[in-house]
Structure formats: C-alpha cells, structure tokens
C-alpha cells in the first residue's frame, strides 16, 4: 500500500489487528504501511473483501485506548474503535469494526437532550457523584467527538477539555428498543414506553422518549454486543446529558428558535395559515349572504336509500334560496356575528339535504337526503333554522387546519403498535423542509438497489434508465423525494414500482411496512393503484366519489374479487375430482334447493323428501353404511304408510270394493318424480307405470282417476323426448299428480297443509340426508379433494364484500384515498406517496404529509395548477401585498422542486428531486413540440414515428394539423363562458371522418370553455352509438392524466382585438394563454393532434400555438387546412 504522504513523519510499518465482525469471531491480522509517531498514525488499509479504508488514529497521553477512529468509507458504513495501541518501534493498533445500519444527523439548533432520571441520579449518588459530574462522566463514556477524538476527563484541575469536544458535534451508537429492557422496574415511564439504548464499551443506557427529551431510566453493564450488533445505528450531531432544569432551559431556547422560524409573519406556512383564515371567513360570509329561513316542523318519508324531508316554514324564503339546488344544513339557532363582526355559525349543524322545491305560497320547502342518518343526526324536529350547508366546508378546513398546526408546531409522536422510531412515525423535520428546503437532521443508510429481479418479474418488464434513477431517489430518501414527470414519462409506473419495491424490502428485513397512496382527485388515486397487489391483496380504498353506486365506489375491490373467483374456477377445473366429494356436494346442493323450494307446511314436502331419499340410496349404494341405509328406508316406509292412510281418508275417489287398488295407486303416486332433478333418472318410467295402471283401473276406481285430462298429461310426459320436459307439459303432469293425491287446493276448494304427523317425518328424512353428506365427506380420501374444498371455501368467502373489505383492512399494507378523505384514518405510514402533487394546494398536501415518515411527491408543475379561491387570493394581496401573495400562486411541488434542484441551495443535502426525461405517449413530432415549449428541450421521445403513425389517408400523414377557421366564418359569442358554433361543426365533422377510417381509435375533444364543451357533447350524442362511445368531450381541467389516439382542440377565441398590451392580450385570448393548460392540451394525443381555431386571433400572442401553427404551415411536420 502507498503510505499517506505526511512530511516530517518517520515512516514505519504498523501491523493492525482488525476485528472484522467481532460477533462472528472472524479475527484477522493485516499489515499495512503507516506513517506513525507517538501521537498519530494514518494510512490506508485494504480489507479482505477488497474494501479500502483510510484510518487516522491519534494517541492521547492520558487515555490511549478508548476512542473512535472514522474509516473514510467508500460505499461502506462503519467506524473503527481503537482497542489498544502498543509501544515500541512497531505499532500494534487493535481496532474493532463497528458497522451501522443508518445514521441520524442532529442539528445544533435541535440537539438531542438526555435527561437523567431520579432513579439514575439516586443510584450514582452512592458513588459520590453530583448530577453535573455524572452527566460529564456519561458524556465521556458514551460519546465521541465527530472527528473521532475521545472526550476525556481532565486529569488535574489545571487541565480542561476543549469546548468542541464537550459541546459537539458528537458520535454515539444506539439500537431501537421495541420492548422495555430486562430489569426495568414496573411503574417507571419506560415500562410502557419506547425508546433507544446507547452503547459504550462496558455499559449500556436505556433512554425513553418523552416530550422531546430522552430520559435515561437505566444504566447497566453488558457482557457482549453479539445480539445487538446487527441492529446498530449511529447518532451524529449535538447531544447533551444533564438534569431536568438544565435541559429544559436548552430545550426552551432551541424550541423557541425553531418555532419562530416556522411561524414568523412572512414564513411560508404562516402565509398559508392566513390564507386558510380568509377562506374560512369568506365561506361563512357566503352562507350568511344566502340567508336563513326558520321552520316550525317537518315530516320525512323514506325514498330509496335516502330520505325526503318537507319543512313547514314560518319565515319568508330569502332571495338566495330561489332558483338554486342548494345543499342545506339545519340547526336549533340562527347564525350571528362575533365582537369583531365576523359571522359565527352554530356548532350543532345537521345535514338537511339538497333543496328540490320551495313554494312561497304554501310555505313549504322540500329537500332530499341521499342517505338515512341515525336519529341523532336528523335536523331539530321543531323551531329550527335552515341555511347554506357548511358541514363539508367546515370538515375540509378543519382537516387543513389540523395538519397545518401539526407541522407548524413540530408535533412528534412515537409510532404506535410497538414499532418505535427515534423521532416518531411522522417526519420531525417536515416544517423545516417546507420552510427552507433543507433539513438539519436526516437519516442515512446504505442504499438499497432500486431494481431487483423480483421487481422486473412483477412488472413484466425492466424500467428505463430514468425510471430506475427516480426509483432509487424515492426508495432511499431520508425524508422527502420529488419526481417530476412530464406527460407520458411513466410516473404511474414509478409509483407502482416503488410500492412493490418497498414491500419487497420490508419482507427481506422482516419489517412491517405501511404505505399510503393518495392524490388530490379520486381518478388519480384509482389510476395509481389500478391492478396493484401486494402479498395477493389489493389496496384498502378509503372513501370514494359521492353519488356513485356501491359497486362503482369499490370497483377495484369488486374486480379483485371477480379475478380471484375466476382463478379459483380455473384451479377447480384442473383438479381431478374425488367421486365421493362430488356426490356429497351434489347432495348438499339438492338439500339446499329442497329447503328453498319447499315449506314444511306444504303437504307435498313429504313425498318430495321421500323421493329424494330413495334416489339418494339408489345412486350411492355401497357408499352409505348399512345402519344409515336401514334408518332411511325405515322412515321412508313410515311416510309411505302414512300417505296410504291419508289417501284412504280423502274423498277424491268414491268408495270401491277393492281397497287393494287404492293402496297400489298410492304406492305408484309416491314413486312419481315431481322434482326436475329426480325426474331425469326414471321419471318417464314411473309416469308411464301410473298411466297404464289408470288406463286399466280408472273406470273401476272412478272419480278423478278416470279423468281424460289427467290421462293425457301422464301420456304426454311419458312420451316426451326432451329431459326435462317443456314447461307446459311439466306443469300439467305435476298438477295431475297433486289432484290424484288430493293435494290440489284449487281443485278441492280448500287449503291443505302437512299434518302434525307428516312434519316430523319430513324433518327426520332431511336429518338423515344431512348425515349422509357428512358420511360421504368422511369416506372421501384426502388429497386433491381437500384442496378443491379449500379453494371452493375461499371462493365463497371472498364473495362477502364486507368480510373481504375487513380482511384487506386488517392484513393489507397499502391504503389509498384522496388527500382530504385520508384524514379520517388514524394510521401513520412509513411511506406516503402523493400523485398529481402539483395540482393540490399545500393545505391539502399537508394532510397526508404529516402522517408519513418518508414522503414521495409525484407530479408536474408545468401542467394544471392548484385551485385557489380567487376572492381569498385578492384579499390576501390587498392585505399582505402583491409580492407576498405571489407565493400562493406557486404550488408546493414547484417550490420544493426548484429548491431541491438548485445546487447552491441544496449544498450538503441528499439528492431529493429528479425529472423523468423520456416520454412514451406521443408521436416524436408532438413530443418535440411539447418539450421545446414547456420543458426546455429536456424531454426526449421514447417511441418511434412508425410506432405512433396514425395511418389515416388524411392530413398528408402528418401528426400535427391546424384547421384554420377565420373570423369571417363566425366569431366567438359574448359572455364570460364563450362558444363558437362554426368550430363545433368542424370538430364533429373531423371526428366522424377519422372514425370512418379508424373505428378502433379513441378521440378526445378539448374545449377551453364549458359552454363550448356542452355544445360539443350535445352534437356528439347525436352520432351513432358506435361512434359516440369512442369520443370523450370535456374542458382541459378534466383531461389531465388521460390520453387518446387523436385529440381535437377547440380554441373558441375569434375576435378583432389586435393590440399588444397586456390588457388587450387578455381580452383577445383570455386564459387560453396559460402555459399549464396549454401543456395539458397539447400533450394528450398519441398519434394525431388537431387544433381547430382562428389562427389570426390565437396563434401570434401564444408562443406554443404559434410554434404549432408554423410547423403546420411549413408542411414538414404538420398539415394546414383553411376553412375560409
């Protein structure tokens, strides 16, 4: 090895006895060339596995053999503890390798405070140590300076320890405690808490987290680190030992500094807090302006799944109630104003439903509530007030307020369910990251591989280079990671890969992992988790769109259930069936059907049970025990005897001289197969036997036995070729048997039922048949039959939706829901993944963010922006100034992305942001246009022109088209939401032309105004169904995240405004010029993008449209069509 070149040092060869993994007793002596003297040795050492580390050892004259030396590592996390340094010409330095899983960094303004409990102080007072002396001794014993030097006690009064050693930064080893340590005393806080264990050479200290301070509750000697070495972690930063009063002072100072930084008047979070106050006040003012109406009473009626309420009013209806389908609340008191003049609404609001009708003449108001609440949730019965609903707004703002308070107050909690973390399950540095984009404390650990063989197999393909890098940053983030995904770059693929990789890593480590996948909108949530399964279970979907049917709200779970059922059916089809199990299942099915078809009060139930029993004995002969067979025959014989006696008592036949004929008739009637399943065996044979008997003896018996219609019915069923017979023949046969048995109530003019003697016979037969099912199953051999039963049982169990939802909730690892609805969950998560994060305002993003220990934001700030209340923004600007209000217009995603990608602002921080740069959706020509106009040419096409060629005999085969419809053909309409009929006509014509040539294509029609979209929807609905079902119409706000083969964009604006000033430009094109919306509009098409509009009006003032227009005029990449 080449020695480290340090001038003035004598070069010596030092032998280092390096203990590599002391816990496995792999002691090895290695020799390296070192420059060494009495005070210092440094050099390079190559370990057996090829790793190379640099060692620096400083020898202190007072204490030479207890300090740490850092190995400057290359992809390796370890420190080396100097065990001993020998004298002589040859230096023997014995080191102990101390590897660690991860490192937690602690900044100076938030040090880790370790308080000495009363028990620890009393125990050491016996040694004559004061609290301050004990704190100093523990610092020397458990801590080292961050540069590797020892913290040593002065040997005399004239010697002092350097301040940098006393005050930090420090190093210390610890492990997580998942249960109280051995010997912890009942009644101490630690006996029910969670914390960490610090390790020194000979002793360990148990610390419990309590109100921001780790309290030292026990110090004990240990014999070995063998059991804990594999779980060791490193603390690096500022650590203080002390007593309660001293630490409280430090904590108060640092806490104040942190809180001031988070809540200063011009801070980021404080600004959003002020916005929330404005929004709350504006919501209340709107409700107050709508007004209230008093009612005397109401009546309610159940209507479907909901309630219809009719209120009797005692005050006139305010104007604000008229002509509007308002959502209403009810309360016992009316709203009023507080001392500051702000509106104050009663706290006991109840949902009163959506207003359907209001009649001033009759003083009636009718609402519909789309669910049935419990009694306590109904409006007050008498003398209440109706007002604009605030419950939804209040709940939304309360969720935002709670999240904002949590992060602004720096709230930290310990992870529940016995899985403690040093800073709890939520991210302690979240407020600091949101304010500054930097974290003074962050945890590092050896990086896990982003892509594994198992992940590739699960995804069915490999990830691109960009996707792998994005996954690596997200997977290994210490706190927050951002993934910017321009259109079509595979953001959803990265999300799915991250979830699967997290679960794979958790299984490797034997850890429990909870992951939340959330987004601003329901569609984005459903898209992110579509088809996602972990350990065979789908994600737990929280909430859902209101107004949807139950099946639609839980469609992913329903799909999972149906897929599992199909899988079970496939397994069952492939398994060889056990004959006895098949017989048992068939008999069990027929018994279920019997119990469903027959009421035991019905006199026909006994003959049917007898027929089923006799058939069972016949078809399962040899598989039923002799005793069971005899028992069944005995009860059937009793039933036959009873039927003969009952028939004899009936008056359907006149008295005859031959009683034997009646007995023979009753016996034949008992043999008739009046169940379809039984008829298939020997039903025709038995029917023909009865027909022939009546032909010979009917005249002699007389009565119904000689009826021609009965004879014809028996002959028809006996001669029927089909089995079972057709319905008309079958009904005539069954009715004839009932008449002959005297059971037809209509025929006999009276109602009949089983007698008290018949019911026990029927019940006994059913009991015996149930026992035969059990006997057959017991006789069946184990093996494939047992597997089949287990599969069948699972198939039936998952059909219970409520039970399956509980199973997913209890055993699943993935939860999914919108940012707002996830607030109803009390769970805290290891990872929170937020899709479409750039669309959500910070107050909504905070709701899931405060629940996560690590956070991954996925989105694109170049697409649709966050939605804010315009009036709140205006008031904010008027109060705080335009410069401060500009903060509101920037999404949190964009704010963090710009900080995380700025090298100067991100210096000394881990890499937290990445942009995906390869798009797979669009034709390369469309992709280049989007990349040039919105992404600084930083996005490349991942598919070829051939792959995205539209193949239509139209538009010269080009992927870009401009249909130029000048103002002379008709301009835009007046009003705020504009229309242009000539564009509607042109767009519909082009859509029909395209689908005529390519009926398999999907078409998206984007209009920039809702009224234009409404006109287009009306026209599209008039097309044949096979065309209209291929077309989706909407405004740009509803199209983010979607893609189509062809997109037609209706620009609408067409006017004579041509001035260049900003106001004129706004009058000319309106919000058509907003880059975010243009980015979405131009990036939805896979193969063909068509712009329909007045080029003279919209192209010059909008760079992106102008670039597209020029490409179409040029003819190389686009096609120009004039509608002049």
UniProtKB/TrEMBL annotation:
SUPFAM superfamilies for this protein: P-loop containing nucleoside triphosphate hydrolases
Spans through the membrane: none
Superkingdom of origin: Bacteria
Alphabetized GO MF terms: 5'-3' DNA helicase activity; ATP binding; hydrolase activity
Listed InterPro entries: AAA+_ATPase, Coronavir_polyprotein_1ab, DNA2/NAM7-like_C, DNA2/NAM7_AAA_11, P-loop_NTPase, SF1_C_Upf1
A Pfam family of this chain: AAA_11
Domain AAA+ ATPase: 477-1075
Keyword tags: ATP-binding, Helicase, Hydrolase, Nucleotide-binding
PANTHER family, per the entry: DNA-BINDING PROTEIN SMUBP-2, DNA2/NAM7 HELICASE FAMILY MEMBER
Sequence similarity: Belongs to the DNA2/NAM7 helicase family.
Protein name: AAA+ ATPase domain-containing protein
Phylogenetic classification of the source organism: Bacteria, Bacillati, Armatimonadota, Armatimonadia, Armatimonadales
